[in-house]
Amino acid sequence: MFKLIRNIGCLSIVLFIIFLILALFYGGEKIRQVGDKTTGFVKKSFQYAADKADSIHQFVKKKIDEFGKPFRHEKRDTYNKKS
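RESULT FIELD:
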């Protein structure tokens, strides 16, 4: 009985990690593709997961843009100095 619980726990952790990787790189696109092949409750749950993946993907893109702003090299006019 404990092996079954341990196996289900390990499987859920692995699925969660795969979900996060897909959400970070692709958003909900890949999850929707898999969900479109199913029907009923499973399709609705895949759509919900895809929406969550999209929100995670947008959040990460927004944070990357915010953190990258100080490091972007904008062209500065060094020759036009005011004396």
